[in-house]
Amino acid sequence: MTSHPSRRDFCATAIATVFASTTSVRAAEKKYDQGASDSEIKIGQTVPHSGPGSLYGVLGRVGESYFQMLNENGGINGRKVKFLTLDDAYSAPKCVEATRRLVEQEEVLALFGSLGTAPQTAVHKYLNSKGVPQLLLNTGASKWNDPKNYKWTMAGLPLYPTEARILAKHVVNARPNAKIGILYQNDDFGRDFLAPFKKVLEDAGGTARVIMEQTYDLSDPTVDSQLINLSKSGADVFYNISTGKASSQSIRKVAELGWKPLQLLSAGSTGRTILNAAGFENAAGIVAIRYSKEAGTGRWLKDPDAMAFEALRAKYLPNVDSDNTVAYAGYGQAVTMGEILRRCGDELTRANVLKQATTLAGFHSPFFLDDITYSYTPDDYSPMKTLHISVFDGKDWQISDRPVTE
């Protein structure tokens, strides 16, 4: 009888594959900036370990665990990685304070995986004036794709305009005569999704059009009045550009009103926590883009990348739930940052870190769907341009077979 490897053996093999990516890449001459030496590479990030955004603190804890695992197996090109993840509580002033500490006191070589458009905007000019890489940001704001003026800053998520254009093309194809109602967050996040979406409708030259727009502020206790107005507008498509509790509230309110539009949701609000608060049954039929896998679900239980993350989680972070997809995302970014550093070889300068990051096109993060890779080039910092359309069936996301490119 043929024997099959156990899941534990399979996970060990998957992790070994990750370790293999840290084999030495040697340059002819060693070059260092602050934060790097013959024995150590120091990197950092700021994320909300406390406050209303504290659920994202797991990004930092996963990073710590991943680099601990690498260090226990020899590090990267023979150097141990010292990773510092500081709490900014999703506050711009605290982000400034923590970032300055990382750069001026800890003297890190680079930052990666920091979170939030507003906090990162607060340190955007500072880091670029210092020539410190600000990589793989957990925000998809269009402002991060500006290599001419802010070459040291790169997003780590699909850019919001990329997502908006793909959703708009879906509407044009699925509902060519659509009457569209829009709810959007009244800030840069909302506007980043709004303008490109409307431009695609305009360029299509058809009859699909926006008939009502409603806004909300993060401080608003509910979005009920906005949803009531939209439901009465005659719209048969609802473009929901919201985050967090506003997403849950709006999805639930649409169902309570008996309104049955085609619903489009921004990808950052598709997590199971948000949908569970809205009620899975109320979220059935929602359309969103997708580029990543999930942790702890049947579809990817035997996926090598997901199994490698699960092995890391089980060993180093047993108190983190196995289906925590935010943690899985953090793992994917840590692996990617490790790959950037590996490619630097013995030239651990900030300029070379940036060079390796901007030439990462074709690299596959273990968090990504199998046919998705990074698309960065030195002249275009779009993290990825190919995405999938997905539809929530009331239990899980059904992902299109074919990817879509903007």
Give structural attributes.
alpha/beta, 406 residues, globular, four-stranded parallel sheet, Rossmann fold, five-stranded parallel sheet, disordered N terminus, single chain
Low-confidence stretches: 1-8, 20-27
Integer-rounded radius of gyration:
22 Å
Look at the helices and sheets and give the structural class.
Answer: alpha/beta
Number of strands: 15
What's the CATH class label of the largest domain? Alpha Beta
Terminal residue distance: 50 Å
At the fold tier of CATH, the topology name of the largest domain is Rossmann fold
Order of helices and strands: HEEHEHEHEEHEHEHEHEHHEHHEHEEE
Mean pLDDT: 92
Largest sheet: 5 strands, parallel
Net shape? globular
Number of helices: 13
Named CATH architecture of the largest domain:
3-Layer(aba) Sandwich
Beta percentage is 15-25%
Number of domains: 2
Strand order of the largest sheet: 3-2-4-5-6
Report on the architecture of this protein.
With 406 residues, this protein is an alpha/beta fold. It has 2 domains: 7-157 and 294-374, Rossmann fold, CATH 3.40.50.2300; 160-290 and 389-405, Response regulator (Rossmann fold, 3-Layer(aba) Sandwich). The protein contains 13 helices and 15 strands. The chain has helices at 7-20, 58-72, 92-105, 117-130, 160-174, 188-204, 224-231, 244-256, 272-278, 280-283, 304-316, 325-344, 350-358; strands at 31-32, 40-47, 80-87, 110-112, 134-137, 153-155, 179-185, 209-216, 237-241, 262-265, 287-290, 347-348, 386-392, 397-399, 404-405. The strands form 4 sheets. A 5-stranded parallel β-sheet has the order 3-2-4-5-6, with helices on both faces. Helix 5 (160-174) packs parallel to helix 6.
